[in-house]
Amino acid sequence: MYGGPDGELGASLRYLSQRFSMTDNVCKGILTDIGTEELAHLEMVGTIIHQLTKNASTSEIEKSPMAPYFIDHGRGVYPSAAAGFPYNAASMAVKGDPIADLVEDLAAEQKARATYDNILRVCDDPDVTKVIRYLRQREIVHFQRFGEALDRLQSKIANQKKVYTTGLK
């Protein structure tokens, strides 16, 4: 979740980039707020990774799926997917169309929630699962806020069309 295609790094950059083409100031504020919160989530996930690896012995790392990562990055926290692929901005969708961007954001939050669900299925560390449950819940809240933004924007567009068509026969 640190730097994968559905991770916190991509989410923060996506939302903070999309805000520039958002036509509604309330929706722009939602993108700014959530994008900033995603940066805090990035720090939380990075901290978990650091705490889980800082005391691992080289022997333990060599015997784990983390061995190739360790060769390239040591115990550094590097933005990559769980499968080891480095972060790539190509997975960050910014269309410049407010409706398309908000629909993408709804999907992104669901994909992040699903990834957290998968982590919870395989994790047995109570300290980690507590944080992951919190982050999962925030993805749900972000989904709801993006839904509200999409509804607001679509209502605004519908009302503008009514203004232009009033009085036409």
How would you summarize what this structure contains?
The protein has 169 residues and is mostly helical. It is built from six helices and no strands.
Question: Would you give an account of this structure?
Answer:
The chain is mainly alpha-helical. It has one domain: Ferritin (Up-down Bundle). It has six helices and no strands. Helix 5 runs antiparallel to helix 6. The longest helix is centred in the C-terminal third of the chain and has 40 residues. The protein is elongated.
Keywords:
169 residues; mainly alpha; Ferritin; 6 helices; elongated
Task: Set out the fold topology.
Elements lengths: L7 H11 L6 H29 L4 H5 L4 H7 L24 H25 L3 H40 L4
Helix pairs in contact: 1-2, 1-5, 2-6, 5-6
Q: Structural class given helices, strands, pairing?
A: mainly alpha
Tell me about the biggest sheet? none
Strand content: under 5%
What value does the Rg take, in angstroms? Answer: 19 Å
Order of helices and strands: HHHHHH
CATH class: Mainly Alpha
In DSSP terms (H or I, runs of 4 or more residues), the helix count works out at 6
Q: What's the domain count?
A: 1
CATH homolog superfamily: Ferritin, core subunit, four-helix bundle
Mean pLDDT reading = 91
The shape, in one word, is: elongated
The CATH architecture can be named as Up-down Bundle
List low-confidence stretches. none
Question: Would you report the number of β strands?
Answer: 0
Q: Estimate the helix proportion, in percent.
A: 55-70%
Whole-Å distance between the termini?
Answer: 55 Å
CATH fold annotation = Ferritin
